[in-house]
Amino acid sequence: MAAAAGPSSSVKETLPPALGSTSQPPPVFDGTTRLYICYFCPFAQRAWVTRNLKGLQDKMELVAIDLQDKPAWYKDKVYAQGTVPSLEHDSEVRGESLDLIRYIDSNFDGPALLPEDAAKRQFADELFASANAFTKALYSPLLSHAAVSDELRLWINSKLTYPSSTTGPSS
Ligand SMILES: N[C@@H](CCC(=O)N[C@@H](CS)C(=O)NCC(=O)O)C(=O)O
Q1: How far is the CA of 16 from the centre of ligand 1 (A)?
Q2: Ligand 1 centroid from CA 67, angstroms
Q3: Atom nearest to 98 CA in ligand 1
Q4: Three-state SS across 97-164?
Q5: Atom 6, ligand 1: which residue's CA is nearest?
Q6: Ligand 1, closest atom to CA 47?
Q7: Which ranges form a coiled coil (predicted)?
Q8: Residue 59 maps to which CATH number?
Q9: 99 and 36 part of one domain
Q10: Is the pLDDT of residue 119 over 90?
Q11: What distance in Å separates the CA atoms of residue 159 and residue 153, rounded to the nearest whole number?
Q12: Which residues make Cβ contacts (< 8 Å) with residue 155, sequence separation at least 6?
């Protein structure tokens, strides 16, 4: 991502409480732009960081969902996939964190985060894909409380090893 101009990400914001199964839904499709997240979800954090870097704190309402006690209305009324993040905008709800980074960057005000140059853009896409594979590989066993296999451990280590250094995080 290109360097974001201005101190948009340092805006102080009072974070809303996470909504659970007994919480009322927000007035969905009332024209408000809403980003549904879970504070602890690394995928949701991507979209949340993008919103903040663009300085959209006042234009994109944050709705935190408690995934341990997920409200039924989230899947029924907001996003049928039931995952976070999702973005309610222009009477539609979109998901998939990497798509949302691109969507928020190109459809909202604020500093452009992704490069316009085709080669740089391709590099950004490769970085996204690599970071995504890494997060998924690390997060899936954590979520399912499964043991990390030796194969996965080796793969993660290979991603953490700096090519020109023997003192990277894997050593
Ligand atoms: N590929 C999706 C993955 C999103 C995802 O798996 N989010 C998890 C939380 S980290 C989720 O919403 N899980 C549904 C649940 O826990 O009920 C993306 O990148 O947006």
Answers
A1: 20
A2: 9
A3: 19
A4: HHHHHHHHHHHCCCCCCCCCCHHHHHHHHHHHHHHHHHHHHHHHHHHHCCCCCHHHHHHHHHHHCCCC
A5: 83
A6: 20
A7: none
A8: 3.40.30.10
A9: yes
A10: yes
A11: 10
A12: 137
Domain that includes residue 127, residue range: 118-160
* 76-90: average pLDDT: 98
Give residues (CB < 6 A) around ligand 1: 38, 41, 43, 67, 70, 82-85, 95-97
Count of C-beta atoms within a 10 Å radius of residue 49: 14
Q: Does residue 102 sit in the same domain as residue 129?
A: no
73-77, 135-139, 155-159, range with greatest mean pLDDT: 73-77
Say whether both 94 and 138 belong to one domain.
no
Q: Which amino acid is at 74?
A: Y
Single-letter residue type at 102: R
Q: Are 57 and 33 in contact (CB under 8 A)?
A: no
